[in-house]
Design the sequence.
């Protein structure tokens, strides 16, 4: 997701959409990071709790939360992602991060953000690029999420954030601490060029 909706409008560029060049869809599907986050979040949720899956994409993480008994809603800036999540049975709304949601609404928030560091000069501005690119440091969307997540969580609420070593795990946790968030790593998986972790966040 990005704050500037127009910057990710596929119609804004005459070049072929980046997603087509990669041979993938315009909606981010479930991958290793999705599985890791889904398992950690679903293990934590209690039946009947209200949960939000930010950047829901195909609705995979939201589906895992629903199967665990949560009353879940998915959100995504990409309208195609919202449609795909709805087709998978997820209530989904188009939203930029946490902006439209009321304070103290959710018991659990999950987010698999766009986290790959990217050179702005090489980005084409299509929806798949928006789902993957985290800006120059990989934290262009992570930081705004951390700044606002406490607002939408109930008193006993917690958030689960997927973080890559490419983004900077320590840097993300330090920034979270600056937002009065306690953090702990509750799941991780290592790959040849990347370490993925799920960070559990609660109000300090």
Sequence:
């Amino acid at each position: 997701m990005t704050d500037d909706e127009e910057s990710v409008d596929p119609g804004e560029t005459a070049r072929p959409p980046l997603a087509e060049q990669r041979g993938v869809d315009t909606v981010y599907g479930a991958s290793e990071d999705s599985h890791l986050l889904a398992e950690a979040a679903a293990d934590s949720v209690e039946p009947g709790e209200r949960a939000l899956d930010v950047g829901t994409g195909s609705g995979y993480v939201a589906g895992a939360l629903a199967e665990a008994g949560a009353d879940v809603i998915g959100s995504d800036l990409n309208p195609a992602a919202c449609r795909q999540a709805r087709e998978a049975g997820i209530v989904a709304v188009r939203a930029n991060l946490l902006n439209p949601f009321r304070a103290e609404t959710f018991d659990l928030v999950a987010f698999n953000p766009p986290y790959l560091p990217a050179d702005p000069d090489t980005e084409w501005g299509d929806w798949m690029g928006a789902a993957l690119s985290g800006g120059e440091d990989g934290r262009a969307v992570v930081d705004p999420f951390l700044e606002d997540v406490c607002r939408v969580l109930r008193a006993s609420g917690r958030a689960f954030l997927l973080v890559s070593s490419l983004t900077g795990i320590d840097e993300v946790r330090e920034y979270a601490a600056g937002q009065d968030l306690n953090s702990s790593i509750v799941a991780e998986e290592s790959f040849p060029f990347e370490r993925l972790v799920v960070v559990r966040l609660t109000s300090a």
